[in-house]
Amino acid sequence: MGTLSSTRWPKNYVKMTTVEETYVLGFKALAEVLPSPLRPGMEWFGQLSLWRADVELLLASFELNTQSADHPHLLLHYAHPASQEHTTSHIQLAQLPLPRNGFQFHFVCPAQKHPRCHQLRRHLYLPLSPQATFACILCSGPLAYLSAQQGSSRYAGMSSEFRALLARDQARKKAW
Ligand SMILES: [Zn+2]
User: Fold this and answer.
1) pTM score, two decimals?
2) Distance of CA 115 from the midpoint of ligand 1 (Å)
3) Which of 80, 81, 104, 108 has the alpha carbon at shortest distance from 93?
4) 97 CA distance to ligand 1 centroid (A)?
5) Is the pLDDT of residue 60 over 90?
6) Is the pLDDT of residue 115 over 50?
7) How far is the centre of ligand 1, averaged over its atoms, from the C-alpha of 117 (Å)?
8) For ion ligand 1, residues whose CB falls within 5 Å
9) d(CA 12, ligand 1 centre) in Å
10) Which of 22, 43, 63, 65 is the most buried (most CB within 10 A)?
11) What pLDDT is stored for residue 176 in this prediction?
């Protein structure tokens, strides 16, 4: 598995897509627009705000249904940020018991990779490429965290173009 040195710039470095470059779907955003805490037996629809790096907003209308214990799900309708095409994402939910009591909902990663992913995740990501759909951190790229990629979070808040330029400049310096 990875060591500290594996986060440094390897020789044939290829910039990975970072989490910060995707729209993030999480249960926190969902909780903000539900009339009560998420639980079984709910049916609700409304509008969800999905953010990219806390700057760009994707508005999605959603239909939540946890009435069936076998098929709790979330439907998202949105204009795909890369193509502007109308897109529907069907995301299965899973309810896992917590160690002490109660339970917690998770997204079932809907990526149709081989074999199908089906990992239970608290966050799903939508990268900007036209073919991209909401998927887990591995199926979406895999995605890197900006801090891990650049060895520091001091670039947080800068535009991705500027960060990319800085990164290229750093890589050139290391090559010298
Ligand atoms: Zn996945």
Assistant:
1) 0.74
2) 10
3) 108
4) 21
5) yes
6) yes
7) 5
8) 109, 111, 117, 119, 136, 139
9) 26
10) 22
11) 44
**What is the spatial distance between Cα 77 and Cα 59, in angstroms, rounded to a whole number?**
9
- Give per-residue pLDDT as tens, 1-47: 445 555 555 566 667 889 999 999 999 999 999 999 999 999 999 99
In the 8-state DSSP scheme, what is residue 175? H
Contacts of 124 (CB under 8 A, 6+ apart): 24, 25, 91, 107, 109, 110, 134, 135, 136, 140
**Each residue of 74-92: pLDDT tens digit?**
999 999 999 999 999 999 9
Nearest to residue 135, comparing CAs of 144, 147, 153, 123? 123
d(C-alpha 19, C-alpha 143), whole Å: 6
Beta-carbon-side half-sphere exposure of residue 103 (alpha carbons within 13 Å)? 10
